[in-house]
Amino acid sequence: MASLVGSRVERKEDKKLLTGRGKYTADVNFVNQTFAYFVRSPHARAQIKKVDTSKALKASGVVAVLTGADIANDKIGGLIAGWRIKSEDGSDMKVPAHPPLANDTVNYVGDHVAVVIAESLDEARNAAELVKVDYKIMKAVVSTKDAMNSDQIYKEIPKNLCFDWLLGDRAKVKEAFDKADKIIKIDLINNRLVPNAMEPRAANADYNPSTEEITLYTTSQNPHLARIIISAFNGVAPENKLRVIAPDVGGGFGSKIYPYAEEVVCSWAAKKIERPIKWVADRTESFLSDCHGRDHVTHAELAVKNDGTFLGFKNETIANIGAYASVFATVTPTYLFGPCATGVYKMPAAYTNVKAVFTNTAPVDAYRGAGRPEATYTIETIVEKAARELGMDPAEIRMKNFPTQFPFQQTLVHSVDSGDYVAGLNKSMEVADYKGFEKRKRESESKGKLRGIGLCSYFEACGIAPSPVVMMLGCGIGLWESAEVRFNPTGNVTVFTGSHSHGQGHDTTFAQIAADQLGVPIENIEISHGDTDKGPFGYGTYGSRSLTVGGTAIVKACEKIIAKGKRVAAKMLEASEDDVEFSNGEFVVAKSNKKKTIGEIAFACYLPGTYGEVKSPLPEGEEPGLKETSFFDPVNFSFPAGSHICEVEVDPETGETKVVKYTAVDDFGTIINPLVVEGQVHGGVVQGIGQALYEECRYDNSGQLITASYMDYTMPRADNLPEFKLDWTCTPSTTNPLGTKGCGEAGAIAAPAAVMNAVMNAIGAEISMPATAEKVWKVCNQNKKRNSEAA
Amino acid sequence: MKKVSLEVNGKKVTKEISNHTILSVFLRDILNLTGTHVGCDTSQCGACVVHVNGKSIKSCTAFAADLEGSKITTIEGLAQNGKMHPMQEAFKKLHGLQCGYCTPGMVMSAVDLLQNNKKPSDSEIRKWLEGNICRCTGYQNIVAAVKEAASKM
User: Measured at the alpha carbon of residue B57, what is the angle toward residues B51 and B60, in degrees to the nearest 5?
Assistant: First the structure.
C-alpha cells in the first residue's frame, strides 16, 4: 500500500460542509428550548447602582431574567486567568474578579449585566430592553500607552498593572550595548485585532433532570477545557455531570479556546429553569465580547557592529489585556512572546520586559500566532531598519546573523532542535526573483507607482507543549494530547483525538497517519473529536499543536495496537512473536507465507473462541478487544521557520497599497498533506496582510467600540489579494516520530513584517499598522511637498 | 402574519409567517435548512447567499413574506441525485474551504457568477466574490476552484 503521508488527499469532511450538512452549534435545537439574550453594558466603566428586572419579567414570553446577584447567590465562580505570571520583583500578577454576570461594576462596553430567557429570541431581545440598569458612569481607561498613568480601575490593582515581567539579563544587555558601534531604535504599535471567526460564538445548554446531567453544545476549539473550567472553577456541575460537545466549529483563530461568560450562564441557567437555553451571538456582540488580539506598544533597541553583527537586543512592551485577565491573556504577551523576541538570530544578549495593563476594553487573549506575530514584527522591522542605517542589503544582514549549527540554543529560552535558515532565505529569494526587483520597481515607476520589497525571516515556538515545563512557568493545565485508536470487530477503525478540528482538516490528516500506521484503507478510518463523552480527555487545538502533539499520540496508540496484534498473530500462526513482522496491514511470519491481516486479528480479539472446541486465538493472559490509548507529552516545543518576501505597489495619488507579489518559503518539517498545509499558509498570510494593511480595532476616548461591524472593521476580501507563491524547505523535527513542526500560525506570524517592510521600502518612511490608504497618502503627500520645496 | 407559498429546492412550501421574518430565518428556523449560515447582521459577509429565481441574493436582506411564488435554491438543493454540483466538486478537489462556515454562501455566489460569465478571469472572480468574506482560506483556493468548475461546466 502506498504511503498516504505526504499526499494531497482530498478532505473527508468536505462533502458534508459543501452540501449544507455540516452541523454547527447554531444548527442544534432541542425540544422545549428557550432563547437567551444578554443585557450588556453600554458604558466602558460604571458602577451598577441597581438592576430592575420587574418590567422585563412581565413581558410576553419571558421565562426568567437573571442577574449578577443571582449568580453570586448560587456561588457560581468567576472566569479565570489560566496562567500565573510573576513580576520581575517576584510578586504575583494581580487580576480582578470576573463574575460571569457583573455584580457591582461593569468594565467594558459589552460586559454582561443580565440574561433574559424567553420562549423566542424576539421576545428575549424585546424584554432585554425593559431591564432597567442604573449606572454611575466613571471615567474609562482606554489607551494602552497611558493605562499606567490613568485612573485606577480596580482598587486592588495599582497603576492598572497586572504584572511587570522580565525575561533575560539586563546587565548583560547593558554590557553588549556599551560595545556597540550603533544602536538602532524603534517605537511601534502592534494594532489591536478582532479574530472574527466567520461563525459567531454560540451555546445551547440542555439540562436533563432525570440524570442531572448538563449537555452543552458550544463553539469551542477545546471542549475538554470548557468542561473542566465550567465544572472545577465555575462550579456549575461536577465533571461527570457535564458533557461538552463542540460539533462543527466555524473557525476559531484562538478566540474559541476557552469558555466565555455566555456558556457558563447558559449551563447554570438551564439547570435552574430545567429547560434548554440557546444563545447565538450576532456579529456586533462578537465584536464587543469575543476576546481581541495583539494591542502592544513597544520600544525596542538593537545593538550592532558596523559590519552588521548583532550584539544585543531589548524589547520594552506594554501589552493591553483588556478589562479582565482571560484564560491565555497572561501567557500570550509573556512566554509566547518573550522567547521569540530575538527572532532567528544569534544574539549574545537580550531581554524582554512586558508590562501588562488593564483597560476598559474587551479582554485580549490569544489570536492566531499569539505573541509570536508581535515578537516577529518587532525584530524583523528593527533588523530591516538596521540594514537601512548600515547601508546593507536586508538579506545580507539576516544571513550574517543566522545560526548555522543545530541544535541551536536560542538566547532567551528555547533549544531549537532543527532548522536551516540560510537555505530557507536563499530559496525564498530565488522563488521571489529577489534579484529582479529593481527592474520591477522601474516598471512600477513608469506607471506612476511606488514599489517596495520587504523580507521577514521568522521562527516560532509551537507544538505546545511539555507539561512539566509549562506548569513550572505558571500554566494551570498540562499540554499533552490524547488519542484512542479503537478497532471495531469488523476491522474498521475509529480514532478519538483530544484535539479539535475547526477547519484544519484533522478528519483527513489524522486518518492519513492512522492509515499508514495500521495499513487500513483511509475510507475505513473515522476520526472522532469534539465530544467529552466520547474520547479521552484532551487539550484541544491552538498553538499549532494538534499534529505534532495529537498526531504523535495517534502514532503511539497505533504502535500499541501493532504490539498487541503481533502477540495475537504469533499465537494464531503458531510462531514466535519475534518472528512476526508487521507491514502494510499484515502480520507475516518471517521466511514463510503464513500471515494474518490486521482485520483478522481485530476480529479474533473481539470474538476470541472457536466453534466446536475450547480454543482461544489469544495468548494466555491476553485481554480480548483491540483498543489502545496514548497520552503524549512532548519533550520540547517545535520550531517552524521560514522566510517570506512581499512586494507592494503604492499609488502615491491615493495612498492605496496593493500586495502584488508574495512568496512564502516555510520549513514545517514533515508535511502530511500539502493541500491542507498550503491552505493553512494562505489563510495565515491573509490574516497577516489584514493586520498590516486593513484591520484595526478602535475604541474612542470614552471606551465605545467604533469598529463593531464589517462596515467599520476592514476584513481582507478576495479582491484585495494577490496569488501567493509557496515553497518549502524541510528539516524534520527530531523531537517527535513524525518529524512535523506545525503550520497553522506561520503565515500570520511572518506576513505583517514582510508587508510593512515592503510598504516602508516603497514610501521611504516609517509608518504604523495598518498602513491604510489615508496614512500612506499622508506620507506620500508630505514627501511630495518636501521634494517640491527642495526643488 | 401572512401566508406565503413558494418553492424551495424544488418542493412547494406554504407557511404562515410574520411579515418581518427574514428569509435566512425562514430557511433555517422554519424549514430547518441550516446549510444557509448567518455570519453578520449588515449584509457584509455573504455566508447566507441563496438563489431566488436563479439569482444570488443575501438571504438576510429579504423578507420571506415578499417572495410569494418565488423559486429558492439553497446549498442543500445544489447537489442533484446525490451527485455534487461541479462547483462543490471543485471546492473539494482544490481545498477551497476550511471551517466550512462561509462555504454555502461562497458556493452559491460562485455558481451565479458562472451563470453570468462562463469563463471568468482571476480578477473577475475576485471582484464578484468581494461580498463573501472567508477568514480561513485566503481566497486563493476558492479562486482556483471557481476556475476549475468553469472548465468543467
Answer: 115
The reply to whether A654 and A552 lie within a common domain is no
- In A54-84, which positions are buried (b, 16+ CB within 10 angstroms) versus exposed (e)? eebeebebbbbbbbbebbeeeebbbbbbbbb
- Residues facing residue A631 across a β-bridge: A482
* Pairing, β A34-40 against β A277-280: parallel
Instruction: Test A718 with B41 for CB contact under 8 angstroms.
Output: no
Contact criterion met (CB < 8 Å) for B84 and A503: no
Q: Model's pTM, two decimal places?
A: 0.97
CATH of the structural domain B2-77, one choice from 3.10.20.30, 3.40.50.1980, 3.40.50.720, 2.160.10.10: 3.10.20.30
Chain B residues whose CB is inside 8 A of the A13 CB are 100
Q: How far apart are CA A266 and CA A35, in angstroms?
A: 10
- pLDDT-based confidence at residue A2 (cuts at 50, 70, 90): confident
- pLDDT tens-digit readout, A677-711: 999 999 999 999 999 999 999 999 999 999 999 99
- pLDDT mean over A452-461: 97
Q: Are A308 and A334 in the same domain?
A: yes
* CA distance linking residue A258 with residue A682, whole number of Å: 26
Q: Residue ranges of the domains in chain B?
A: 2-77, 86-152
Residue B99 and residue A197: Cβ atoms within 8 Å? Answer: yes
Q: Tell me the C-alpha distance between B30 and A561, whole Å.
A: 48
- How is residue A602 annotated by DSSP? H
| Cα distance between the two ends of chain A | 73
Alpha carbon of A150: minimum distance to chain B alpha carbons (Å): 35
Owning domain of residue A429: 296-464+636-790
Is there a domain that residue A179 lies in? no
pLDDT score of A790? 82
Question: What are the strands of the beta sheet with A481-487, ordered from one edge?
Answer: A525-528, A493-497, A481-487, A627-632
Report residue A791's pLDDT band, with 50, 70 and 90 as the boundaries: confident
As a CATH number, domain B86-152 is 1.10.150.120
Sheet holding A296-304, edge to edge: A161-168, A349-357, A310-320, A296-304, A182-190
CATH number at residue A494: 3.30.365.10
- Where are any strands of DSSP class E within A41-176? 46-52, 62-67, 105-106, 112-118, 132-137, 161-168
Whether the per-residue pLDDT at A580 is higher than 80: the answer is yes
Residues of A in contact with B44 (CB under 8 A): 709-711
Report the distance separating Cα A320 and Cα A143, nearest Å: 8
Residue A303: what residue type?
A: A
Tens of pLDDT, residues A729-771: 999 999 999 999 999 999 999 999 999 999 999 999 999 999 9
Contact check, Cβ <8 Å, A20/B35: yes
Q: What confidence tens digit (pLDDT) does each residue in A268-290 have?
A: 999 999 999 999 999 999 999 99
